């Protein structure tokens, strides 16, 4: 199956938090979108890998994505080396997405920056014909996505462009809240974490509203790029 967009996240819920509204909007427009989680988030303070498997499956249904896979890399300890790059390359060549979305280039959690660089490097290497991979016993052909964009997570990184997600923020929030084990719940005895506070829960709308305000819409999601953006006409900009 070829995909229009493939979104990678170091942990289940990264994609929903960083670009869930954008994914929901693209799916609604008829695009085929997939999500790849690098790890199961097994080192997370709250919940468990098994619970997060269930939550990620529920979130995928809410967003309407065509496929979601987990690569079972080691949470906290995966590295950007040949073996891990080849895992990503196999996925890229399998789905041949036009656009790849990945973690923030720098963030509070060390896996986010690592995952960002790992996926970005693999996207480049995937286009080299002398990098050989197989999938289900068949040799894969070289393929490089046209664009790689990085969503924004904990840190307030200045975006290079903002996607208007007005009309899709509610779906985004619903997908995020599918991860009930991870976020604020006054009735749980689980330890508190930075994303399990009432403040963080209330902040889920703050950045999208502010980015929306800055582009003249209600809600927006920001991304950074690896090369200059190009448009055919000034009229392409809103």
């Amino acid at each position: 199956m070829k995909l229009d967009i493939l979104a990678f996240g170091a942990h289940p819920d990264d994609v929903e938090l960083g670009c869930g509204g954008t994914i929901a909007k693209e799916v609604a427009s008829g695009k085929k979108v997939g999500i790849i989680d690098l790890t199961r988030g097994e080192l997370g303070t709250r919940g468990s890998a098994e619970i997060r498997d269930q939550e990620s499956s529920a979130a995928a249904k809410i967003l309407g994505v065509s496929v979601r896979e987990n690569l079972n890399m080691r949470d906290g300890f995966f590295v950007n080396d040949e073996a891990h790059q080849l895992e990503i390359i196999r996925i890229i060549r399998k789905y041949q997405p036009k656009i790849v979305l990945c973690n923030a280039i720098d963030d509070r959690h060390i896996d986010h920056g690592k995952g960002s660089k790992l996926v970005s490097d693999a996207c480049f290497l995937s286009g080299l014909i002398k990098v050989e991979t197989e999938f289900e016993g068949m040799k894969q052909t070289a393929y490089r996505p046209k664009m790689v964009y990085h969503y924004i997570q904990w840190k307030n990184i200045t975006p290079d462009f903002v996607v208007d997600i007005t009309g899709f923020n509610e779906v985004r929030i619903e997908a995020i809240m599918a991860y009930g084990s991870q976020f604020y719940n006054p009735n749980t005895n689980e330890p508190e974490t930075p994303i399990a506070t009432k403040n963080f829960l209330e902040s889920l709308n703050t950045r999208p509203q502010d980015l929306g305000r800055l582009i003249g819409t209600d809600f927006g999601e920001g991304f950074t790029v690896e090369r200059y953006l190009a448009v055919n006409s000034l009229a392409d900009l809103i």
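The mean pLDDT is 96. The longest strand covers residues 33-39.
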